User: What shape does this take?
Amino acid sequence: MAAVADMPSEATLTGLHPVARMFGAMHMATRRSMRQFAEEEIVLPEGPRKGLHFSCEFMPFMGLVLDVFDSDRFWRFWGSGPVQSGKTLLFVVIPLMYHLFEMEENVIFGAPELSMAQETWVQDVLPVIERSRYADLLPRRGAGSQGGTPRLSIRFRNGATLRFMCGRGGDEKRSSYTAPVLVMTEVDRMDEVTVQSREADPLRQMENRTRSFMATGRARVYAECTMTIKTGRVHQEVVEWGTDSRLYGRCPRCKVWVSPKREDFAGWEDKEDIITAGETGRTHCPGCGVAWTEGDRSGALETAIIAHKGQQIGPRGGVTGPVPRTQTFGFRWNAIFSPLLRQQDIATTEWRADRADTDEARKWVIQHTWAEPWELDMMDLSDLTRDLILSKVTKRPRGTVPKNTQALVGFIDLGLYQCWWNMWAFWVMGEGVLGHLVDFGCIEVPHGREKRPEAILAAMRTFRDDTLEQGWQMEGAQEVVKHRLCLVDAGYQPDITQRFVRESGARRYMASVGQGSAKHENAVWKQVKKGKGRVIGNHWAMVRQPDGRNLLHMHSDHWKGEVHDGFAAPAGAAGSMTLPDADRHDLADYARQIMAEEHKQEYVPGKGLVYYWDRVNRMNHDLDCAYGAQCGADVVGVRPAPPATPAGAGGGGARSGDSYAERKASGKWTIGR
Assistant: This one.
């Protein structure tokens, strides 16, 4: 069935295990190269060359890559390129068919989800097989027969098996099957250890399925993915751990071998319309700076060669320099080297992204057109500093309640040895709520020889009777003001908290839990649905418990942001927060705890931009107390009147204003990392 290729040289097999030499010699004497196989067997099922045989003359760089696949210099092959450039065909379809039908070997096909592997089979692989002579090897009944979607595997009539594996789920999904060949797609979405897994990341687990074939030299791994970020797996494998191989074409003007990148594509900028941008966008030679016509570009593509990182190219195209000492051929190419894309197409894509002026649009162009990593992988969104917080200290003495106060709201954060507390005054001014810290401190929890949670309850009772129920002095008056509501953390010792609330009086005391994206928090925020015994508020929900008491669920991400925005705002502005005149060491420690968490955004493959709070200091009790008290103020009704809603307009959502709520309610809010 197969044409006979040239016999392998002794140098090719030198240094291999004896079994590998025997096996390699036997197979190399009878098999075709992957390039020969692809050009003789692959018929394209769709696209501009539909119905034609695959040809390396049309896309010369593919022939170069297929030659590397055949070289036996590497056994791991990772690739990343632009959309509509044959990435799936080159790194998935051709290797998969070659090993199944030419080599008659079992193959594992890995994807983030089983459904994705099945979809790739149906849309990309099966149509190519059906147009080849290997259609006769498809099963006639059972899994994968008659064009059906297979569940876990397909056994072909030549005896080879294609087994599907996915990155999600427990380790057992990736530990029960071995094969010499692994083909993977969308690898960056599998580069994390799942919750159900106790072993390495799914990519490593899948690759380990080929381990038993390494000694014989039969193990092969092929993987492709769109470039994501610098810390993503495909960038690491291709650029950092692999050869970081690129294409170089000979400039028709200066005759120098060059590899143009995004910065070399210009002429479309500042054009008034997309048509003009498409007409003027051109690749400029990095050597001589001359703008290439489509003819110049085609000439460069026809002369393309591959060079690894650290290598040089001579005037006649000779590549000099050592090949990187790695097992991984890492290859990336951009849209300039794809004959399926015109320079006009590249220019209009750039123009649209520039006019959209969003990170998502720019990211798409960088990753999907230029195969470069998106470098906005993490950003600290907090404008807050310790000095800025301390600049909000007023002349009002500690323990004094401002005259405008509408409600005193407290919060207690429980701990085994200490319980931290804040008492805040809140009032509405204009379109925002202003807050002032009246008092704060730490409750010592004495223990005997044994550390018992009941000691927390005893300390809380004493604090309630000696401090909370005594109240605070109103500014400029003899009046003593008591708190309207005191929230108590129920995340650490829920039974102790509920006992304290129950005996203290449910009208002015309530158990609460914070839910958000920080790693140290017990649960992520999920919007509570309306129902009996539930009150839904602005990023909080009050839920009636079986014993009749209420438990307040607080969206901590939102309220922490309100606290940071409040300290960042000018004193007296809507939403601003101020501090009392107190001991400077106490205030410095308070500011340090407010800064204990930083709000960040991070690009996560498969999720996009993810916002979360990162704890940089374990002493974050005052931040918890401050955001809990501010949420409590909203619960008791200290909030600005909602703006008038025009007839027919929808309501709800985040509050208006240049606030954390508005900045983060942009449709990109994701809970959890």
Notes: The longest strand covers residues 432-444.
